Amino acid sequence: MQINLKMHLIQKGGLTKGGTIKIDEQDTWRYTDWEGNSVSYPGGYPDFKSAGMVKQEVQIGKFEH
Questions:
Q1: Residues 37-55: pLDDT tens digits?
Q2: What pTM was computed for the model?
Q3: Dist. CA 6–CA 61, nearest whole Å
Q4: How many Cα atoms sit within 13 Å of 33 on the Cβ side?
Q5: CA atoms within 13 A on the CB side of 4
């Protein structure tokens, strides 16, 4: 999953525009963009809430197929 995350950021131009990726002691990736905005990816998924980027949450219920 971690390699896919890095490839996604490269494809979106995040790393080529001056963004960085750092990996902490728990092997959690932290991406920081060229403007200084940072998001951690625990388990390979972005944690926008801990990054302070969530303004409102909505409960949408259970998905059924």
A1: 898 988 888 898 999 989 9
A2: 0.63
A3: 31
A4: 8
A5: 6
